[in-house]
Amino acid sequence: MTALFAQALNVQNPLFDTDSYKYSHATQYPQGTDYVSSYIEPRKGWDGIDDVMFFGLQVELAKLAKIRVTQAMIDEAAPVLAAHGLSLYVEGWQRIVDAHAGRLPVLIEALPEGTLAPVGVPQMRIQNTDPACWWLPSFLETRLLRAVWYPSTVATLSHYVVGKIRAAMIETDGSDEGAEFKLHDFGARGASSAQTAALGGLAHLVSSMGTDTAMALVYARNFYGADMAGFSIPATEHSTMTAMGEDGELAQMRDLLAAHPSGLLACVSDSYDLMRAVRDYWGDALKEAVLARDGVLVVRPDSGDPLQIVPDVIEALMAKFGYTTTAQGYRLLNEKVRVIQGDGVNRFSIVEIMKVMMQRGLAIGNIAFGMGGGLLQKVDRDCFGYSMKASALQRGGVWHDVYKDPVTAEGAKTSKRGRQGVMRSDNGAMVARRLENIPEGADALCPVFRDGRLLNVQTLQEVRQRAWPDKFGA
């Protein structure tokens, strides 16, 4: 990475990628500790969402597999951390360089990605494989927890919303065909970084195939083998629709149709007067051109109260272009016209908009949603209470439970004891169990990384099949 000043540090040095206080932890474990086992879990539900989709760890594992700790990395980090007020555990890192050629001696086991499991069920387990590196699992907590909580939270959010859309479409349209294009990712510009947009956008693509986050396509191909994971369409923005002023808006719309005689095409239509654009421009002056296209015009209102604007726009278009009535008794626009709502969209407003539409007899097939900051940015680790905790350590060949149970938290932060595993109960639900209480071969946490090498690499298609077996096949 480019630096602006001399004496720049290597941002790729993995010895810097942890919380500062963890540099002091190597001397804090009991003497004689050989192995530490830790797990990651979502501890609580998030406003009505109690099942969490595990996704995204493979991206981090690919990065961990490339790590080769070198003498130069140790020599760089040690004086910097000393000036920072801490001491690098040089002996431990030297062991990794000398005995493991710089590879990280840990075993990571995890749920298959795309698995939906209740909160409180561990999604990942990590343990060192070299007894001289008992300190390493906890050192890696910062990057592992960061690698899991964010994409899993976005994947869960997207899965939840798409599920709501699918259910509503079945009720009003009689089918959820095309639902994978009903929630579009508009979040790239509102994300905190390019990496955030790419990872969150990728998580969304587990349940959807609509995205404007191009970097998500790069991650999908590079880390999950997807040739093309999502799709977009030509669309306008206010800068293009206002380029000729208010008097030139109609001409811009006419030129837009001429430039795109076929396919899906979206146009923001509220630059000046939304209902004039709907009734007089699209529904009158340009009506024949819209109907003549070999494709669909998607009208985008982008301001106002969506609970009022969305059904009003749909009904105004119906007055101009006509509609059919589904077998379920809901009105569906002429197939040449649809609407997309991107302003004020989050998981709650989408449900409310659909509820109002249904109350007014409008099929959900009329609408698609573009979700931006509400999808990729307005989430945090506390949504599902994600945590990584050490739950067992081995001393003298004997495993001992490690846990916390703070009285002041009244049970809300009690951690699990012993090496953790996951199995399906008699009723088919996934549950947490101590590893020694799980029958051989029944642990749902599968090896995915050992001693610097990836195991069991998964494709996006396989992930989608687990997440949506009825849509992406078995």
UniProtKB/TrEMBL annotation:
Gene3D superfamilies: Aldolase class I (3.20.20.70). Keywords: Glycosyltransferase, Pyridine nucleotide biosynthesis, Transferase. Coiled coil: none annotated. It holds the Pfam family NAPRTase. InterPro entries: Aldolase_TIM, DUF5598, N/Namide_PRibTrfase, Nicotinamide_PRibTrfase, Nicotinate_pribotase-like_C. Its EC number is 2.4.2.12. Residues 181-420 form the Nicotinate/nicotinamide phosphoribosyltransferase domain. Pathway: Cofactor biosynthesis; NAD(+) biosynthesis; nicotinamide D-ribonucleotide from 5-phospho-alpha-D-ribose 1-diphosphate and nicotinamide: step 1/1. It catalyses: beta-nicotinamide D-ribonucleotide + diphosphate = 5-phospho-alpha-D-ribose 1-diphosphate + nicotinamide + H(+). Residues 15-108 form the Nicotinamide phosphoribosyltransferase N-terminal domain. Diphosphate binds at residues 189, 238, 300. The keyword Transmembrane helix does not apply. It is an enzyme of class 2 (transferase). GO terms for biological process: NAD+ biosynthetic process. One of its GO terms (molecular function) is nicotinamide phosphoribosyltransferase activity. Beta-nicotinamide D-ribonucleotide binds at residues 212, 300-302, 342-343, 373, 381. SUPFAM superfamilies: Nicotinate/Quinolinate PRTase C-terminal domain-like. NCBIfam families: PRK09198.1 (NF006629). Belongs to the NAPRTase family. This is Nicotinamide phosphoribosyltransferase. It comes from Ascidiaceihabitans donghaensis. The lineage of its organism: Bacteria, Pseudomonadati, Pseudomonadota, Alphaproteobacteria, Rhodobacterales.
